[in-house]
Amino acid sequence: MTANAGNRLDDAPLSRFHKKLALYSSGGPFLDGYVLSVIGVAMVQISPQLRLSDSAEGLIGASALIGIFLGAFAGGWLTDRFGRQLLYTIDLIAIIVCSVAQFWATDPVWLFVLRLLIGMAVGADYPIATSLLAEFTPRRFRGPLLGGLVVMWFVGAAVAYVVGEIMLSSLGDDAWRWMLASATLPATIIVLLRHGTPESPRWLANKGRTEEAEAVLKQVYGPDVTIADLPDETEERENVDLKAILRSGYGGRMLYISVFWTCSIVPLFAIYAFGPKILDALQLEGGLANIGEAMITVMFLIGCVVALLGVNRMGRRPLVIHSFLWSGLALLLLGIFPDAPSGVIMTLFALYAVIIGGTQILQWIYPNELFPTEVRGSAVGLASSASRIGAAVGTYLVPMALTGWGVGGTMLAAAAISLLGAVVSVLWAPETRGMALHEAAALTPRPAQDRPSGRPASV
């Protein structure tokens, strides 16, 4: 196969199919943001009604994150083994069933288990949906579309706070039950929209199912596209399996992705799980705390949109470094001045929310670009699972940290994590801007003069 093989796909225009696939794939991140954020509002009623201790409150807040840790790796392995299409729907059906069951939860253990299962289903969707989108999307649009999935996380979070506040003020003592069950509606809509999505032709070709792969290519790209237009990834690197993720160049990539992802979500998820409680500690009380959290969510959304507009122009490496550095400084100021006026507090939170957008969109771009087709789902799942260990621990410790360290100490700890992400990114962050998917995943990078940035393609 020639060196330009696959360019017809990598350089294809953005079609209606690509836009629909990006929208449908964003359903998982939307539900993730929704279920992880609505618990923050629901906890206002759950804690007194179920008489939760700080420890139990932390466990329920972290339960979905623990589930994501379990589900992301399992989903990644399953999607590499059985394909993207089948699991693309099954995981959302599980979310629907468990969300409905939360309405009848009567004790902390039952609620913890259900939210754990929801987290597993959400985590499984990450590698499934992102692998499918990455393998269909032309290189010019891959970064923005993959990063756009994270925008939907914040849309889901914003909707959760609005819905939660409305239910809290209108549905009485059972409002928390309706909040937790409300994820059923968007999950059902997404399942219906995803029906009929084709399998990834790259995955089919990798499994030797060339006739099916060619049929999908013709369906999506036109009748003159054939299997010969798929790049031969084996020419770019040695054959790999899951074990190769943990050794050679892929081991270095996996280490960076796991650390960077962890540092980007630990402070963010802690803020979302207990946002109203944190803002209350910063003298923003009651409904104002929930409204403040919704406003911050809008700023997160703005930050992600700004990052999407700049990711191809600025490049992956500069974006992740600056995002970590300046957002960490905003958290540092919150930690040093926790008694500042409300306007200053909200301004610093808003700055953090806008600036951290760069690291958020790269959570889906980097892993999907740095690993080959046969292990892409497993790699994304493994990185997502590894990051959720830290996120779950951090979320679990937030109530106790607020009690023991105060809000200032808690914010200082969050700042330290973000600044660690900046240091690690300076040392290890790769640049994959402008590369075809098989080039970015190859262990041997293109010569520096052939790349847009001149930065190394691997850690």
From TrEMBL:
Localization annotation: Cell membrane
Keyword Manganese: no
Protein name: Metabolite transporter
Gene Ontology CC entries for this record: plasma membrane
Organism: Streptomyces caeruleatus
A Pfam family recorded for this sequence: Sugar_tr
Sorted UniProt keywords: Membrane, Transmembrane, Transmembrane helix, Transport
Annotated SUPFAM superfamilies: MFS general substrate transporter
Span of domain Major facilitator superfamily (MFS) profile: 21-433
Gene3D superfamilies named among the record's database cross-references: MFS general substrate transporter like domains
Lineage: Bacteria, Bacillati, Actinomycetota, Actinomycetes, Kitasatosporales
Membrane topology note: Multi-pass membrane protein
Molecular functions (GO terms): transmembrane transporter activity
